[in-house]
RNA sequence: GCAGGCGUAGCUCAGUUGGUUAGAGCGCCGGUCUGUGGAACCGGAGGUCGGUGGUUCGAGCCCACCCGCCUGUACCA
């Protein structure tokens, strides 16, 4: 190491990953606890699975490839089998359930929940990380729409439990069968059109991101992301004919179109009338619940309008009809339980992932504007989502096992809440600091620390949480530094015992909160010091704990 | 992945047509102050100018490649 430029190791973190300090940890812990309580109220029970699974259990082998998909962190075990870090909590649960069905370890229908970190090897963005926490609820073994409706209600209740007011979030519901039905109607059914169906679904998914003309481009020839030809990147389109595009756009605008009474009145012919049997006594009271937020949602606000418009699509293949009926069932179920459209609404543009959903799909979105640290508006994706995945468990078993689930993006939600100042900024309360006045009496000071640590914060609750206290471990050359340290730790108070106090069997306890308030008023050194003594009390050493308890009570 | 923008001290930023020892404010450390956080004043530390290579007598500045960050877009289980 005689080199003048030693090659020092650079301390750095891979992109998309974040260290987390006390404030963030506290915020996460609180969120997780809130979500957990809500999920348990709904009857879900916890289960935990490891972060690593066999890659094929996660379903991420590409066809024609012996390597797992990019986007998943994967590596090979000693025996050359591919392992992957989980990228969601749903696939691992399916594996867990598949191993236990028919045993005494699981009772169907099985409601379970779990929180955990998941990993995705992709480009990070605002609220988007390569390691992040999800909180999942799943119901396995029930094909009932009541299970799906419950997921939506659970999502809405959880948002509110987390302090997001009604109207600031919305649970959007759609059904994959409906989308499939629409595509079948324009001749995109069948195996040979799978690729184009994907393109169409992706275009539909962007309905709340781009104006309708842009969607039209994506369904037709394609779109330049710079806004005009030749600018930016080109997204290949689905090459539908303009008639086919019209069919899809009409479907996307079902909510809007149905505002016309004439359309609604003609709607009933094309679908089974049972769909509309109870429409009229359902919705008008719901209008008070109606609010058009910054996100212009495509679907109409009134279920009656939405379903009338869907009926009016003149699509009557089996998938479409089934899908609409399922949507109607969910809509009725949640509304009968008192969830209005402000909380849970049908939105025909919701697509979600393309992998395994087979029926209803849900997405939770925040409806308020979010700005980054510099005040620029940020586009946040959904903070939660899910849907029915009837095929996922059956991959491991011959039989079909219906299942539906919902996942909250805890990390993303936390990032959003922290950007709007709802959490993360509050400093974590520090411990009581016992200062070292006399180096030779460290044992005495340590004894005080121990005495405090063994005492309850609240004298009336001896079994409650104990006082947090610590000894100053730095160089005790002067008291000022020790107070500065205590201040930075956000300590509620410091304990001082110098020669004067010791001689009389006393201790001085300084309330730092009070001291800070007094400090702001004085200019000169002498007045300042004079004022500071007002923030402290000198009491018999026997009253140490009592005095600290008084200060802690004042502070909370 | 694609397109564009940006990288100078812990933070926010200056830095002349390429010219000698790269600056400021805030923050940090120390002192004035041997029993008190703040203020004030004084002093100090901290930079291979994102990295590598090139052009040049000479590069923070010009060129190439790489890395990172931001925005849009793609993907989003």
Q: How would you describe this structure to a colleague?
A:
It is elongated and about 95 Å long. The longest helix is centred in the first third of the chain and has 20 residues, at 22-41. It has helices spanning 22-41, 55-58, 90-100, 145-161, 176-185, 194-205, 212-219, 242-252, 254-257, 261-266, 303-311, 318-336, 410-419, 442-453, 479-488, 499-504, 512-519, 525-532, 544-555; strands spanning 45-46, 52-54, 74-76, 82-85, 110-119, 131-140, 169-175, 222-224, 234-236, 344-346, 360-366, 370-371, 377-378, 384-388, 403-409, 432-434, 469-471, 493-496, 506-511, 536-540. Helix 14 (442-453) links the parallel strand 16 (432-434) and strand 17. It is of the alpha+beta class. The protein has four domains: 22-48 and 87-168 and 368-427, Bira Bifunctional Protein, Domain 2 (BirA Bifunctional Protein, domain 2), CATH 3.30.930; 52-85, no CATH class; 180-346, no CATH class; 432-555, Anticodon-binding domain (Rossmann fold, 3-Layer(aba) Sandwich), CATH 3.40.50. An eight-stranded mixed sheet has the order 1-5-6-15-14-11-7-10, with helices on both faces. The model is unreliable at 1-7, 256-274 and 277-300 (pLDDT under 50). The protein binds one RNA strand of 77 nucleotides through helix 15, helix 17 and helix 18.
